[in-house]
Amino acid sequence: MRTDPDQAPLSADRTPDWPERATRWAQITLAEDDPLHFDADFWLGLMRDSRSNATCISAGGYIAYYPTQIEYHYRSKFLGDTDPFGTLVDGARELGMSVMARVDPHAIHADAAAAHPDWLARDSDGNALEHWAHPNIWLTCAFTGYHREFITEVAREIVREYDVDAIFANRWEGYGGISYSEGARRSFRDETGLELPKAEHQENWHEYVGWRRRQLSRLVSIWDEAVRDVRPHTRFIPNLGALAARDLDRALVEKHYPIFFIDKQGRSGTEAPWAAGRNGKRNRGVFPERPVRLITSVGPEHHQYRWKDSVAPAEETKTWIVDGFAQGALPWFTKFNASVPDHRWVPPVVEAFTLHAQVEPVLKDLKITAEVAMLDPTRAGQLRTPDGIGHEDGFYQALVEARVPFEFISDQELKPERLDGFKVIVLANAEQLGDDQLTALKQYVERGGSLVAAYQTSLYDELGRPRDDFGLGDVLGVRLQEPARKVKNNYIALTGEHRLNRGYDGTTRIIGGSHILGVEATDDAQVPFRFIPDFPDLPMEEVYPREAPDRPGVVCREHAGGGRTVYFPFNLGAIFWEALQSDHGQLVANAVAWALGKDPEVTVEGAGLVDVAVHRGPQEVAVALVNLTNPMAMRGAIRETLPLPPQTVSVVVPGNEVRARLLVADVEVEATVENGRAVVTIPTAGLLEIVHLVWRS
């Protein structure tokens, strides 16, 4: 139904703070033929049954699903005199839901391309780029009038004619590579005096990255201000991938991003089930106060074969949604194509959303906290190492296995007020660190903070230029003797008693790395492991060490301010992620435990694979346990979740009067308080349980 913004008063749910109340999202991504057969009653019923309080509905851009009046805004050829977008908007509003209109500006049809060749993305030879997946449609360039003017008018028309709270833009950056349109060439030349780089990481690439960020930031500002001119409470909110928030200008976010929508719709292959929650952590690492919603596809994620019109196993869908909201990335489901030939996705979505609605009254006012944080390296050109990008994944997996609650902190946010909220910062392989970042981390250690670092951390500056030695060498207690080299059959030997040696009873050595550096430890450092010099891996008769352990394999230091540092001169995270050898995971856990220097504020003990999050308030804490225990935990889709055996949760509390409740089981339980810790036993748990403790001050 079309509306008149001058006559429609703002109701309670049409105020600028609507994003905070929109916590469970249902998205319908329409296909062109959906106007022929889509069932509005089914979708509105699902929104009601799933307790969704917000929806995102396809409106326009590439295809319009409403009777647009804008020339070259392509209408669905099946639209006729129908208005499926308007029908769904009206129905959602009757359910009291917030509403966003989805637009997609990344491609246009042939008639628009012929009339406006200046809108098209082009290769370095000036050729227009046809869409890679569908013939006779064309990719757009974000640095032309198509984005700045045409999409602005589309957004204004939708907001003017329909009762919506926001425009949601998918693939809003246009062509993902370097577009050599005349508009892009001219803009880059005018702003920098340079020509566009010929390819990624070639001449002028660094300047291009900064220019692109600024241009896209201005584009978001144009769109957001345009829709707010029509309706003051509305917003224009671009979609984000799993990493994109790291690349946004802070001023842009403060002004134009009331909420983040993270388009990481599921896992595939060997991606770990905890990857859902990582999205929440990563965005909090840059913007801790911004709400985050995690988009989940009801189908499997396979980037090569796509399968977008299919259905994932029920437990896979539920696990992705639940791990996301337990770590602060609240639920959103999306269904591609409004027809529903396969209904198997409906019950798991309803179950997961209902579960969130059950625990939301407690979690909504609490803040996720942790004593440990992993540094999120956001600089362009990270990970120069020859052994892939598994460094973060390996450390992440090890910390999850060890039940260590942890957060992310962006390398853009290394301010004392952010750093000092953590006891330990983990640098899985933070290769590129600028002088300002080095200073911030050194001062953090001087104030009593601890670091756990690995591999080539701090060996490059912020532009990727190599340093002669570690930028953090004086803190970590190491000096570079030999750059990274690839090895086989590598081992590190235990050398003396140390907390990092714990858990290795019965052996004098464990596996080392596949890429190692030669380092020398300072005199005040401890060396609990040393590398065994290289020896052959074949013939089998030659597989034995020739020399005694020599160079440091692990270096530890205790600092005057109370902080501790641990450094691993090999690719610990990457090799753990690749080979999943338990000794490597134990080494990460030991390092963090020693660096913490005390008993953790929260511990969770018991069998199984559990992702832990700690939600805190002034006189309460909620410890979320997401049960990732399943037969396919590290390979393939989750088909079932195995119930957890008893788990023991221990939390530091002030005083002895503590009440405890299991939010999912919905039962009161006994909390035993002794030595300043409240201990609760969970007899069993399915996919999720949350221990809620409340005390008197």
Task: Describe what you observe in this structure.
With 697 residues, the protein is α/β, with parallel strands linked by helices. It is built from 17 helices and 31 strands. A nine-stranded mixed beta sheet has the order 13-12-14-15-22-21-20-17-18, sandwiched between helices. It is globular and about 80 Å long. The protein starts with 17 loop residues before the first helix and ends with a strand.
Features:
single chain; 697 residues; nine-stranded mixed beta sheet; eight-stranded parallel beta sheet; 17 helices; globular
Quaternary organisation: single chain
- How would you sum up the major sheet? 9 strands, mixed
Helix/strand/pairing class, anyone? alpha/beta
Uncertain ranges? 5-12, 380-387
What fraction strand? 15-25%
Strand order of the largest sheet: 13-12-14-15-22-21-20-17-18
What level of helicity do the residues show? 25-40%
Helical run tally: 17
Please count the beta strands (DSSP E, at least 2 residues each).
31
* Overall mean pLDDT: 92
Estimate the global geometry from the Cα principal axes: globular
Radius of gyration, CA atoms, in whole angstroms: 27 Å
Cα(first) to Cα(last) distance is 53 Å
